[in-house]
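BUG: 3D viewer hangs when loading the predicted structure for this chain

Environment: internal workstation, default settings.
Expected: structure renders.
Actual: progress bar stalls at 90%.

Input used:
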Amino acid sequence: MEFMMQAIVMTATGGPEVLVATQAPVPTADAGEVVVRAEAIPVLFPETKLRSGAFPLAVEPPLVFGFQAAGVVTEVGDGVDPALLGRRVALNTKGFGSYAEFVGAPASSAVPIPDGLSSVDAAAVLMSGSVAIPLLETARLTGTETVLIEAAATGIGSYLTQLAKEYGAARVVATAGGAAKAERARALGADDVIDHNDPVWPDRLRETLDGTTLDVVFDSIGGETARDVLALTTPLHGRMLSYGWLSGAPAQFGATDLITTGRTLIGCAGPDWLARVADSRNAILTRAAAGGIDPSVDSILPLDQASKAHQLLEDRTPLGRIILCP
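Structure tokens produced before the viewer hung:
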């Protein structure tokens, strides 16, 4: 007998309206897999790009959408420790399937949620927090340096902003989109904030630096402004860590811009990078459980409002993670 569940199916590539609430079969755990009863599902900005067709999907729609969830393990497949049954975990799917009441995923991706941390907060922290830690480790801050964190109020930037001084930043300069996000970035620990909605925001950054330079840039915007930002880093020493393309394109400069100035570009992507991110998931959940960071939850919506959540993300209005709850 096939059991059914509520799920959000992506019917085609397109706008948020292609995410449709419907009934779908409850997944079963194949060898090496677990099934969880979802309690919290984070809505991730890259998901909006995949849904719209801006990024390619590994599987053609229709499909149950979504990449991460937190909940209680209800089934384990062959080769999986049965002690996981009944445990709360946060996990990554194989590329789809988390916008649902029950979620199947590789057991290797399941991270136990520490006592004292809600499933909502675990879901909020899992992706962005586990990226922030290896970014800060890679930057190798010395304790005297000035850093720029782009898009500092939300997502990965919000965790970079909270943790940067602990990892060795002396001054945190941030960008944020609009007054509300600028206020949020300051609350998270930024010393100075520039509105990156201003078309000439690198000029505002230059004015804020007032003759000083940046030692490290955490670049999530990319695009044409990246060359202007690179020029504000310290020659022979400045490092730009590129991990996002909020502008729609990677950083637009060439090898000559680096070679002739001794500056360094560090790409933070690919399989080896993702392995480092995965290795940081336990650490960020443990830290969140201890109260050392703000999980930055903007709002909690019912599962059937997934399309609304995507529209809010595309409007760039949330001040933190949107969580769907079945």
